[in-house]
Amino acid sequence: MKKARELAILCEADVGLIVFSCTGRLYEFASSSMKSIIEHYQEAREENNCPLLNSTSEAKK
């Protein structure tokens, strides 16, 4: 969470981070409204026809 906050400040960026621990606990950070960050993300994906990565192995490629 600390690094997400630092990234938002240093880069003057909207940052949203959602983490589920191995025990299922939810952690989240949003530099502004999480809802607006997610909406912005969805709009950008649609405009660029970017599919959502489905697995960790795809993200590592």
TrEMBL record:
Transmembrane segments: none
Subcellular location: Nucleus
MADS-box domain sequence ranges: 1-33
Principal subcellular localization: nucleus
One GO MF term attached to the UniProt entry: DNA binding
SMART domains: MADS (SM00432)
Annotated InterPro entries: MADS-box/MEF2_TF (IPR050142), TF_MADSbox (IPR002100), TF_MADSbox_sf (IPR036879)
Key words of the record: DNA-binding, Nucleus, Transcription, Transcription regulation
GO CC annotations on file: nucleus
Highest taxon listed in the record's lineage: Eukaryota
Name of protein: MADS-box domain-containing protein
Species of provenance: Paspalum notatum var. saurae
